[in-house]
Amino acid sequence: MKKALVLGGTQFFGKRLVQNLLDADYEVTIATRGKTPDSFGEQVQRLQLDRADKRTLQAAFSSTDTYWDYVFDQTCYSPMEVADVIEVLSGRVGHYVFTSTMAVYDYGVNKLETDYDPYTYPILLRSRKDYTGMSGYREAKRQAEAVLFQTAPFSATAVRFPLVIGQDDYTGRFQFHVRRVMNGEPIGHSNPEDRLSFITSEDAGRFLHFAAKEKLVGPYNAGSSGDLSVQGLLDRMGEAAHAMKSTTIVEPNDPQSRSPYDVGGSLSMLMTKAIADGFSFKDMNIALDECIDYYLDQNQ
What's the pTM? Predict the structure, then answer.
């Protein structure tokens, strides 16, 4: 039986990943701070740790000598956290799947994996408290990928996800837009013509599992093909809601009305590499329409 360690796994597509692994008869261990309940019962083993505190990793993993065929890193927000796991789990990892983001790229559309090269990016080890805001998040993920690919003694995949959507989205980002469109409330955004890519939480969980099974090596963009402007997304929501008036886009000065999709510019990716390796993503338009319809029903 294959053994998998999931750092995280109790929220959103992390739960999807864990369920996929259980359905495939993996022996699964989830390692979290223990603050978010999960519904897996006795199907999983649990370790408690804090990614920002290396001592808790050492304590948690000293309690077992398990060799994990696959490690899935869902909770890393600094290069130091990757470095700590590499050290603490030395000799006990078969393949490592790191959850990264399209934010590693400079702003623009149709980004390819080669547009950010973690194999040559200069490493500067810092902890998560040193990274703040969107710019900090982007740099933290770049640095984390760089540490992984330049120093890890095992094979690894960095999965660069776009915006994740789904009926199990605990972040409320997609719902924010649906609700304000339904109510005719203004939305703050710097440039509603910014274009973005998307992936469903179901596909996100499936692709992480796929990357492990196939032992994909290097960075991979993962998401539905195509992109859509923020304005296009709001128009689509308005049509589905039969809104009496269009949503007004305003300057993002009010935190209450500012779009959580105002990421500073366009960020969209091409999924050519993942598709060529045999993975099929859900059609973007179908995914968006299903998600819109679901949250419209929830807000009736």
Answer: 0.96
